[in-house]
Design goal:
Chain B: Pfam families: FtsX (PF02687), MacB_PCD (PF12704). The complex is a heterodimer of chains A (226) and B (413). Chain A is α/β, with parallel strands linked by helices and 226 residues long. Chain A is built from 7 helices and 10 strands. Chain B contains 15 helices and 10 strands. Classes of the chains: A alpha/beta (226), B alpha+beta (413).
C-alpha cells in the first residue's frame, strides 16, 4: 500500500539569488518502508524532507500522504494533518525544556484531543518504556542526557501513531552507541508497527541498513538502491 | 478555550517567575497610578468646589437691574404717526426682591432643591476708630444659611446663633477684623449708602478660606439688615438655593426659571473659570495616567517580545507538531492577559492603598486637615478596563509575531 507519493516536485530559492533546488523529483514510498535520503550538503535532501513534511509549501508539483493530497491545503489544515499523521525527529531534540519528559511526549496527543488524558498518559509511559527512558518521566526535559533527550523526542513523534515518521539527521548529534539504539528503534517501528520512516542522513552505516536509499545530487534523484 | 494551550501558557509563565513579577509590577504601577492620579485630581476639584460653595450658592435669584429698557409708550398704530422719545432712562422702582417668601416657596417646591435661604446684601462702610473700610454687609437667615454654606463650620470665634439673639450682633470676616483691628466684644460703626449709621457689637469671627470674602464681608441677622435699610418684612436682595448635585444646577435653574420673574442664575454662569479649571485638571489627570499605563504596556510588550524571541525553537516545534497560528497566539496572549489580570487587580488594591495613605497626609489650608482624595468607583472600573485593553494590545503584537514564525527557517538552523 502506498504511503507517500511525490510527483514532479520543483522548488526554487530566491534569496540571495534564484536557485533551482529540486528538479523534477518524483518517487513513491510504500507503507512500512524505512528509507534513507542521502547526498552531499546542498543536494536538496533536507529541502525535500521539509516539503514532504508539509512544513514548507512553496513548491510546484504534488505530494500525497496516505492517499490525501496535501498540496494546496491551508496552513491550519496542514497543522491538523501533521498533528495526526506525521511524526518528527530532528538532529536536535527540540524538547520544551520547561516541561517534564512525560508532558513533552503527551503534548501532541493532548493537542489532537481524540483520546482521554489517562489513556494518553498510559501510552506515553509505554513509549518511554519502549525507548528505555522510563524512570525519567517526571524530570524536566532539560535535565536528562542528550541520548535520552533524542529518545524522548522519538517517543513524542510516535504518540499519535503517525503513518510517517520523518527524521532530519535524527542521529546527527549522537554517539555511535545511541545511533545504533535509535536505528534499531526505527527498524523495529517499520517492521512491527508498519510505520513508514523517511530519514535524511549523512551516516553511511545508518543508510546502508535501510530498506531503500535515495541518493540525491544537485536537486535530482540520481539513484535508488537496492 | 483549549486546555493544552493554557497548560503551555501556564508553564511558560511559572517557569520565569522573576520576569512574571516584573511584568505584573509594571501593570500594578500603571493601574495604581491611574487610580491615584484620578482620585487626587477629583479630590482637588471637589475641594476647590467645596471652598467655592462656602460663599456661593448653586442657584441665585436676584433682581437684575440691567434688564431691557422698558417700553415707555406703545408703538404707534398707524404709519402716519411719528413717535419720538428722547433721552429714555430706566427707572428702577423695585430694588431687590420685595416678596422673597414667594420665591422661596417656588424654589422649595422643586424636589431637587435641598435648601433655600435669603440674604439682604448691601455695601456699607465699617468704622472702628480711625479705620474706615468699605465692605459688604450680609443680612442672613441664621437658620437656613448654614444649611447651604455650612457657615457654622467656619466660625473661628463666637456662635452664629448669637445674631438672632441680639439685634446689634455682627460677625466679621477674619480679614476684615484684622483690617479694622477689631476683636470679639468690640463695637464697630456701620454706615449705609443711604447715610444711616448704627453701632454693632462683634460677637464672632468667620473664616471661609476665600480671602477676598473674608476680607470684606460681615454678617448680621436678616431682620436687622431689613431694619437698617428700612425695608419690608419679606424683603431680600437675593434668594439662594442649593441643589442635590451642583453639576445639575444649570438644568434645575432652567426648570424653575419660568415661575420666577427675577433673574435665576446657576453658579456656572458667573464662574466659568471654576468649571474650566476642573475640566483642565481632569484632562491632565487622564493624560498623565494614560501615559503611565501605556508605558506599562511597553513593559509587557518588551517582556513578551523577549519571551517569544527566546522560544523561537519551541514555537517552531509546536508548529511542526500540529499547533496552528491561532494556537500560538492563544498561548502567548493568554500569558499577557494573565499578567494583565493579576497586575490589574493588584493595581486596584495598591491604588486604593496609595490614595488612602495620601488621604491621611496633613494639609492645613482653609477648612482642610488632609490632602483631598475622592473615591470614585468609576475610576477603578476605567483603570481596569484601560489596563486590560493595553495589556491585550501589548501582548497581541508579540503573539502575532510568534504565530508568523516560519518553522522551516528555524528548524533547519
Amino acid at each position: 500500500m502506498q504511503s507517500l507519493a511525490a510527483v514532479n516536485i520543483n522548488k526554487y530559492f530566491y534569496d540571495p539569488q534564484e536557485f533551482h533546488v529540486l528538479k523534477e523529483v518524483s518517487f513513491e514510498v510504500k507503507r512500512g518502508e524505512f528509507i534513507s535520503v542521502v547526498g552531499k550538503s546542498g543536494s536538496g535532501k533536507s529541502t525535500l524532507l521539509y516539503l514532504l513534511s508539509t512544513l514548507d509549501t512553496a513548491y510546484t508539483g504534488s505530494i500525497a500522504i496516505n492517499g490525501t493530497t496535501v498540496t494546496g491545503l491551508t496552513q491550519n489544515q496542514l497543522a491538523t494533518f501533521r498533528n495526526e499523521h506525521i511524526g518528527f525527529v530532528f538532529q536536535f531534540h527540540y524538547l520544551l525544556p520547561e516541561f517534564t519528559v512525560l508532558d513533552n511526549v503527551m503534548l501532541p496527543a493532548l493537542k489532537l484531543n481524540k483520546r482521554p488524558k489517562e489513556e494518553i498518559r498510559e501510552k506515553a509511559l509505554d513509549l518511554l518504556t519502549l525507548l528505555d527512558v522510563r524512570g525519567h518521566e517526571h524530570k524536566k526535559a532539560s535535565m536528562i542526557s542528550g541520548g535520552q533527550q533524542q529518545r524522548v523526542a522519538i517517543a513524542r513523534a510516535l504518540i499519535n501513531d503517525p503513518a510517517i515518521i520523518m527524521g532530519d539527521e535524527p542521529t546527527g548529534n549522537l554517539d555511535s552507541k545511541n545511533t545504533k539504539t535509535v536505528f534499531n528503534i526505527f527498524r523495529q517501528l517499520a517492521r512491527e508497527r508498519n510505520q513508514t520512516i523517511i530519514a535524511v542522513t549523512h551516516d553511511d552505516e545508518f543508510a546502508a541498513n535501510c530498506d531503500r536509499i535515495i541518493e540525491m545530487v544537485d536537486g535530482r534523484i540520481i539513484a535508488q538502491h537496492p | 478555550m483549549n486546555r493544552t494551550n493554557n497548560k503551555i501558557s501556564w508553564v511558560h509563565l511559572t517557569s520565569k517567575l522573576r520576569q512574571l513579577f516584573v511584568a505584573v509590577l509594571s501593570v500594578v504601577f500603571g493601574i495604581s497610578m491611574y487610580i491615584f492620579m484620578n482620585s487626587f485630581m477629583n479630590g482637588v476639584n471637589n475641594a476647590q468646589t467645596d471652598i467655592t460653595f462656602t460663599s456661593m450658592a448653586h442657584i441665585k435669584v436676584y433682581n437684575d437691574l440691567n434688564g431691557e429698557s422698558p417700553i415707555l409708550l406703545p408703538p404707534p398704530l398707524s404709519s402716519d404717526t411719528i413717535q419720538f422719545v428722547s433721552n429714555a432712562r430706566e427707572i428702577s422702582y423695585t430694588e431687590g426682591i420685595r416678596n422673597a417668601d414667594e420665591i422661596k416657596n417656588i424654589l422649595l417646591s422643586n424636589k431637587n432643591i435641598v435648601a433655600v435661604t435669603e440674604q439682604v446684601n448691601q455695601n456699607v462702610f465699617f468704622r472702628n476708630g480711625v479705620a474706615k473700610l468699605n465692605g459688604t454687609l450680609s443680612g442672613i437667615d441664621v437658620t437656613n444659611e448654614p444649611r447651604l454654606f455650612g457657615t457654622n463650620d467656619y466660625m473661628v470665634e463666637g456662635d452664629l446663633t448669637e445674631l438672632d439673639k441680639r439685634p446689634d450682633a455682627i460677625v466679621l470676616g477674619s480679614g476684615l477684623a484684622v483690617r479694622l483691628s477689631a476683636y470679639t466684644g468690640d463695637n464697630i460703626t456701620l454706615t449705609t449708602s443711604d447715610g444711616v449709621t448704627k453701632i454693632f457689637r462683634i460677637t464672632g469671627i468667620i473664616e471661609t478660606g476665600t480671602g477676598s470674602i473674608d476680607k470684606s464681608r460681615a454678617m448680621i441677622s436678616i431682620q436687622s439688615a431689613r431694619q437698617l435699610l428700612s425695608k419690608n418684612k419679606s424683603y431680600a436682595t437675593e434668594v439662594l438655593a442649593n441643589v442635590r448635585d451642583y453639576n445639575d444646577a444649570r438644568k434645575i435653574a432652567d426648570e424653575v426659571k419660568g415661575d420666577i420673574k427675577y433673574k435665576t442664575e446657576p453658579w456656572q454662569e458667573g464662574n466659568a473659570q471654576l468649571e474650566s479649571a476642573n475640566t483642565l485638571r481632569d484632562i491632565i489627570a487622564v493624560a498623565v495616567s494614560l501615559t503611565i499605563l501605556i508605558v506599562a504596556g511597553f513593559g509587557i510588550y518588551n517582556i513578551m517580545n523577549m519571551t517569544v524571541n527566546e522560544k523561537m525553537k519551541e514555537i517552531a516545534i509546536l508548529k511542526a507538531m500540529g499547533f496552528d497560528g491561532k494556537d500560538i497566539i492563544q498561548i502567548f496572549l493568554t500569558q499577557s492577559i494573565i499578567i494583565g489580570l493579576i497586575g490589574g487587580f493588584t493595581g486596584l488594591i495598591t491604588g486604593f492603598i496609595i490614595s488612602a495613605i495620601v488621604d491621611r497626609i496633613p494639609f492645613h489650608i482653609a477648612s482642610f486637615t488632609t490632602l483631598p482624595i475622592s473615591y470614585i468607583p468609576l475610576d477603578y472600573v476605567m483603570a481596569l478596563v484601560f489596563g486590560l485593553i493595553i495589556t491585550f494590545i501589548a501582548g497581541y503584537l508579540p503573539a502575532k509575531k510568534a504565530s508568523e514564525v516560519d518553522p522551516v527557517a528555524i528548524l533547519r538552523g
